[in-house]
Amino acid sequence: MAAGDIRIEAVSRIYGSRTGDVHALGPVSTVLEAGQTTAIVGPSGCGKSTLLRIIGGLDRPSAGRVVLGGQVVQEGLTGIGVVFQRDLLLDWRNVLDNVLLPAQLQKRDAAWARTRAMALLDELGIGEFALRHPWELSGGMRQRVAIARALLCEPAYLLLDEPFSALDALTRDQMGVLLQRVQGAGRTTSVLITHSIPEAVFLADRVLVMSGRPGALLDDIPVPLPRPRRLSMREEADFAALVRRIRTHFERTGVLTG
């Protein structure tokens, strides 16, 4: 599957519960452009992760639909890589075998997959740990393995659900720089869920700001900062202005105070 637009068409999600229905999301409509990274920020419980799961075919909308490159999202759709907050590595498989798992499930050529897996691990700075097991690695190293696994089969779409939120600040910054490098310009259409406003601005070409539950779009902000991006850009006025614009929405709605 070639990278294409992500069309979100009047998507909403309602969950049933013992005390009544919970309207978690929407309706939300927008188009995420092919080859771009779009970050989605919003308060806890606003439906960010629900929307990501619907985009990836891991959850079904109560109404509306998502179309990836002209194909309606459904279970079993290929060409999608996902990285969650938890790395979900298999502790009984070494690092290389964890990365190779998608290729084995898709019955891809073994020699090609091994060569690409090692190239990704090297690019992410952990090639020397290919034969180690996940329990021998730090949290940041485990997330690098998860990213390599998601990118192994060259997905057209990369979905990232708060992938760095459990990491310390220094490792989180480092991971953001590494993610930019391995994604490559225009090779994937990516969606990033994050609670960090600076992280959203640093990594994305565009930031969608969501309201509290049920999640709706409050703002759609282009990020015209040049790439590749350096961490020092966070100290520049253009970067600060974008962060301030996003933060203002949360101050107005009472999510942020002081």
Automatic annotation (TrEMBL):
For this UniProt entry, the molecular function terms from Gene Ontology, in alphabetical order, are: ATP binding
Question: What PROSITE patterns has UniProt attached to this entry?
Answer: ABC_TRANSPORTER_1 (PS00211), ABC_TRANSPORTER_2 (PS50893)
Task: Note the SMART domains from the entry.
Answer: AAA
Query: Keywords of this protein's UniProt record, alphabetized?
Result: ATP-binding, Nucleotide-binding, Transport
Q: Is Nucleotide-binding tagged as a keyword?
A: yes
Record-linked SUPFAM superfamilies = P-loop containing nucleoside triphosphate hydrolases
- UniProt domain ABC transporter: residue ranges: 6-237
Would you identify the family this protein belongs to, as annotated?
Belongs to the ABC transporter superfamily.
Give the protein's recorded name: ABC transporter ATP-binding protein
**Species name for this entry?**
Roseomonas alba
